[in-house]
Amino acid sequence: MSYDNDLIDWAAIWAKTGRGVSAAFGAFSYRISTNTIGALMTVEGDVPQALPSGTGTYFYNSETGVSVLDAVTSR
How many C-beta neighbours within 10 Å does residue 58 have? Predict the structure, then answer.
């Protein structure tokens, strides 16, 4: 959740193939002030988190490094 409590990121587990194996999550963001839901994306292991600034982007730690993605388009 962003510092101003406006941007929230959600994730729900979709699949896990066994003990000790990373899980696949469906993740999206939601902005309370505009009632806007961001694009759904599938992530494995790490899940997106809202930036404290609430600037409309969220933070995703992937296997390739750190990416900052737009909260609406997930790009």
Answer: 25
